[in-house]
Design brief:
Helix content: 55-70%
Low-confidence stretches: 6-29, 160-167, 209-219
Distance between the termini: 30 Å
Strand order of the largest sheet: 1-2
CATH topology: Growth Hormone, Chain: A
Radius of gyration: 27 Å
Mean pLDDT: 77
Structural class: mainly alpha
Largest sheet: 2 strands, antiparallel
Strand content: 5-15%
Pfam families: PRF
Order of helices and strands: HEHHHHHE
GO cellular component, one term: CRLF-CLCF1 complex
Number of strands: 2
Shape: globular
Protein name: Cardiotrophin-like cytokine factor 1
Number of domains: 1
GO molecular function: cytokine activity
CATH class: Mainly Alpha
Main location: secreted
Amino acid sequence: GDSWGIFTFLCAALCNLPALPALNCTEELGAGQSIQKTYDLTRYLEHQLRTLAGTYLNYLGPPFNEPDFNPPRLARAERVPSATVDLDLWRGLTDNARLAANYRAYSRLLCYLRALDGQAGTAELRHRLGHFCSSLQGLVLSIAGVMSSLGYPLPAGPAGPPAPPGNPVAPNDFLKKMDDFWLLKELQTWLWRSAKDFNRLKKKVPPAVVTLRLEARGF
């Protein structure tokens, strides 16, 4: 009847429709998203280091685990990259210079932390140090990604710490513990400042753009 004829016509019409473009939402990974991820990672490492530092300082024992212990920085500790730079001077650097300084510092700090990982006396502490080293390695790679997305070259030269002159081994246990203390202290300061750096940088760079692409899909 008429109803069957109409149904047959509609089916034929649907089968012969031209291929329709399908909307596919894809996100372009740009500098803005790379900076946001790096900022989030610095904040995560800040939180992670608070627990790790407390555990490690307790492992070192007094006076290193006492809240008011604030010794002067020894000449031996100068091998560890210092974050104690005047804030106005630091902010006066270009974005490229600050990123390069962060990349070099964390590359060197990572080498020193891996040495701590091999010396830790308890399995739990070695596990925590190993996990933190993996996260810090991720931060080094993330900073490299930010520099690449902004068109900055990576700093030239070796990423690891330079070989210290003379005998690198601490002459006694107390000075070795002092080296470890300053390593953690400087790392805390670097992460605190880096979080501020990337927070400012992400405000200067627009967020990642979401684009709609048309893909022809045949039937």
